[in-house]
Write a structure and sequence with these properties.
The complex is a heterodimer. By secondary structure, chain A is mostly beta strands. Chain A has strands at 4-6, 10-13, 19-25, 31-37, 44-49, 56-57, 64-70, 73-78, 87-94, 104-105, 109-113. Chain A has no helices and eleven strands. In chain A, the strands form two sheets. In chain A, strands 2, 4, 5, 6, 9, 10 and 11 form a seven-stranded mixed beta sheet that branches. Chain A has a four-stranded antiparallel beta sheet with strand order 1-3-8-7, with no helix packed on it. The model of chain A has no long low-confidence stretch (mean pLDDT 93). Chain B is mainly beta. Helix content of chain B is 0%, strand content 57%. In chain B, strands 2, 4, 5, 9, 10 and 11 form a six-stranded mixed beta sheet that branches. In chain B, strands 1-3-8-7-6 form a five-stranded antiparallel beta sheet, with no helix packed on it. In chain B, 36% of the residues are buried. Classes of the chains: A mainly beta, B mainly beta.
Chain lengths: 114, 109
Amino acid sequence: DVKVTQSSRYLVKRTGEKVFLECVQDMDHENMFWYRQDPGLGLRLIYFSYDVKMKEKGDIPEGYSVSREKKERFSLILESASTNQTSMYLCASTLSGDQLSEQYFGPGTRLTVT
Amino acid sequence: GQNIDQPTEMTATEGAIVQINCTYQTSGFNGLFWYQQHAGEAPTFLSYNVLDGLEEKGRFSSFLSRSKGYSYLLLKELQMKDSASYLCAGLDSNYQLIWGAGTKLIIKP
């Protein structure tokens, strides 16, 4: 079974702090994604990566950056956390080169910025 | 613009059948996904349709009509464990997923 893990289930940070969310997948998947999920809204894509050291902006990249130094690990960075970044953050991975194939999701990190 | 519409919440009775509808407007179309998400958990894949028609997978079936921009997820013989949110997502011409807000399904005994 594919397993996608995220570093924390719950995180509380203060405004202005730099926040690191980490995601690791164990199935040698090429592609990794970061989403945020807010009540009443669909999943919104923040960034994705099709290869090591490669990144592409999604729909809402502002205020975020990412790092993919190793194939299995994809990190989301909030440079200076703000209260409007309070959300559930979901990491996902897929085997093939686009979003056509099934996405495997991590359990999510619920981030609260105070 | 691109949009996925699905009902916010539905209630059904254990043992019954429920149909969750999804309408989509995407720039081009390369298929439609359904995912299940239990509260506090990760979404998990249920189905993918790209051709018109009904695909059955055990108690769950998914239907697609490309001409109508419409899909539904049919759940039969409902069980309490089916209480979850069901997410509809359309794949556009750039193979990017457009997600609906999800339908929260409440199953009552």
